[in-house]
Each structure stands twice: as C-alpha cells, then as structure tokens.
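Researcher: I'm comparing several assemblies side by side, and this is the next one on my list. It has 444 residues spread over four chains. Same procedure as the others: predict the full complex and return the structure.
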Amino acid sequence: MASEKSETLPVRISRVLAERIISGQLEPGARLRQDHVAAEFGASHVPVREAFQRLEAQGLAVSEPRRGVRVAAFDLREVREVAEMRAALEVLALRHAGPHLTRAILDEAEEATRAGDNSPDVRAWEEANRRFHRLIVTPCAMPRLLAAIDDLHAASARFLFSSWRSDWEARTDHDHRAILAALRAGQVDEAAAILARHVQWIGSKPVRTAAGGTRDVFAIQG
Amino acid sequence: MASEKSETLPVRISRVLAERIISGQLEPGARLRQDHVAAEFGASHVPVREAFQRLEAQGLAVSEPRRGVRVAAFDLREVREVAEMRAALEVLALRHAGPHLTRAILDEAEEATRAGDNSPDVRAWEEANRRFHRLIVTPCAMPRLLAAIDDLHAASARFLFSSWRSDWEARTDHDHRAILAALRAGQVDEAAAILARHVQWIGSKPVRTAAGGTRDVFAIQG
DNA sequence: CGGGAAGAAATTATCGATAATTCATGGCCA
DNA sequence: TGGCCATGAATTATCGATAATTTCTTCCCG
C-alpha cells in the first residue's frame, strides 16, 4: 500500500495499462484478467475494475458483460475514423485557440517541432508531436474538447507504435512549420486547413503486406 | 435482486441516473451518495461506483478524489462548447453517411421531424429531435464517432430541459426540412452546412432573466 | 460575539469472501 | 470415430465489512 503523491489507485492502474496498450506491449485482443492485474499492483480487484472502465471510456479496451475485458482491436477503418475525428476537433480547437496564442506558446511549439525532428526513436517523436498539437490547441480553454482530443491522440499513438516497431528514421516535419508560420502571420484559417490535411494523412496506406514481408510505406503524421 | 433481461446492473443504474440528471430532476452540484443510491436500487456500492464512473465519462458527473461525486455543473460556456463539438462531429458524420442514405431513412427522418412539430411537451420534442439527428448520421458506420455524438446529445438535452421547464410551444422545424430537402437532392455539402448552423444556434442567448421574471427568448435547435 | 480547533458522525475507498456464470476438458453415446 | 452433454476449473460480479479521510457540529478562547 505504498501510496504515491495523490494519484488515486484506479487512475494509476489505468494509466500504466494505457501505456502498455498504446506501446503495443499488450496486444489487441489480449485478455485483461482482473485478478492478475490486481496481484501485480498489490491491490484488490475493485480498483482494477474501475481502471478497466476508464480504459473502456478511452476506447482502449472493450468489456463484454460476463466475459471480461480485452484490449480493443483496431483496424484501418477505426484508424481513419480517429484521424477524421481528430481533424474535425483539432481544427475547431485551433480556431478558438487562435486569438489566445502568444509568442511564447508558438516558440514552445517550434521547440517541440525541433525536438520531434531530432528524435532518436518513435516514442520520443510521438511525445514531441503530441506536445506540439497540445500546445497550439490548449488555449481554446474548452476542457471537454481537449479531453476528447487527448483520447483520440492516445488511439493515434497506439496505431503509430503498432506499425513502426523498429527501424525509425526521423524527418523534418514541414506541416508543423507551415502551421506555425501561418499562426505567426495571424492566418488561423490557413493554419487550420493545413492542420486538417496534416492529421487526416494518418493511415492513408495499408498497414502490413504479407506476413513478415516488406512493410509498405505508411504515412503517419501527427 | 430482481434482475431484468440482460442489462448489467451498473449500466441500469447509470442509465436511470443519467435520465434524472438530464431531465433536471437532479440539479447541478447535487451530491450523489453511493450508499443512498445503492440502497435505492437494492444493490451494493460497487456497481454504484461503476455507474458513477460511467456518468463521469459521459460528462454528466464530476468526481473529486476523496470527496465523492457530484452532478456536473454547466454554464453557457460549456453549452456553447458542446454545441460546437456537435456541429463539427455531426457534420463529419453526415458527410460520411451521405452516400449510404436511403429513401427509407430519409422518410423516417421526415416522420421524426413531423413528430417533433406536433410534440405536446419538451420531452417528446427532444426525443423526436434526437431521433432525427441520429437517423441521418447513423449510416456513417463509425461507432466511436456516433458514441461521442450521443454523449453530446445528452449534454444538449440536459441544457434544453433546464431552461424550458414549463410553457412549451411547438413550432415547425424549418432547418430539419431544409436538411432533408438537400439530402434528397444529393447535396450533402449543403445539408452539412445547414446542419452546422442549425446545431450551433444552441445557447445563443442568456438563459434566464431575473428570478421568476419573463424568460428571454432562447434559441434552442437540435 | 466571532473565529478556530478538536471531536464525532458520515462517507468514501479498499479489501476478503461468496455466488453466479462462462470456458474447457473429458466421457459417453450414436 | 465424430459429435454432444455433463462435470469441473477458472473468472467475473456482487456483497458485507474494515480502514481512512472528509465534513459537520460543538465547544472554547480571544
């Protein structure tokens, strides 16, 4: 019962499990057995249950009534769905954030873009990419919208990690820079248009070819 | 322990509580005490806890770590936020549903519009209105998107009931008919544009004037 | 008479255990 | 030999109880 700072137990468990699901450590369809998880965290199954519900609300797990909880499966259809929802919602958020964007925020976003370009691995790139997107939409001050966007980002990241397990090669993110340039010029509509295209380019190509074969080029943009 | 057909206990409890919150029977800020709810439903507090979490995921309740759960408060800001999210997501859904809309679906939607125009009270109107919106977006076949829209509808309905408690007067919904006309003509973009305006007109005016005084005109559109 | 602290009541969060359901294995019969 | 039913093991869902935290009340002091 070593309690951390002030994070509740269910939140802690759900966060750790979410990381495992997103990173691919827990594969789609894998069963989440409450007793096992409870034993691992040194807790009972009641907090674990709540953690499972939290994951289900995020779309990372699915719960069949008397059959237990599984890691949510995802196919290209859902990836596209998430991408389109992200495009719609992030554009909305950016439009509202536009008037409240300060020089400091844009500088920080540019820093995040640079960090992304210099990332040694996918994980670092994803973190920087998420930071960029979060920075430019947060000033909209719409909590419900931001929470929804966060959940969609989790789903996107999950897909990202599932495809690029190894062989990572960083490249400069021209879209991010174009968005920043437009925002610096006060052209929010232009920035929003670029952002929409940028986000929707997720999953524009099939995920895998034959088993073990060469993986097709696969456009992921954050 | 009279169990119904096959609906799980937490789902049942959360549904009933959601209805009460939406209808205004449970006022914003009201505490939800798990033992009381448990006693009312003849259950323990474990399923009640899960029901609370479900409500929180829907945005109908807020949970402070060791302080319990309260009915979520909502102000005009959040109403606008929900309206804009609805506009963005329903437009997205309609664009994808467009190609799959059949004559039968549009006829049913027109029937729902008529039912709304002839509604004797707000509750009936809201039900018909929700049916209309659901009908025209469901064929998009994007489960995550539809679930998000449903949650937003719940928030909208909650706001609707909170303002129009009594003195209800039905009026013909021209927007719905215009949307249907555009869809029948195959002009999905036109329909989407009308839908966006239609939804965003929620909460365009202040909610209440002085206590008990004349209530200001208050544009709610579904 | 007002503010603050200490105690008591209430409520939340977690645990261990029980009941009910599902999944798997093995045996039986056609 | 193949399919089906029954029994057993595993797992989920719920319950009752305990521990910890918060909040309300009341009393004391300035």
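Model: For your comparison table: Residues 1-5, 206-219 of chain A have pLDDT under 50 and may be disordered.
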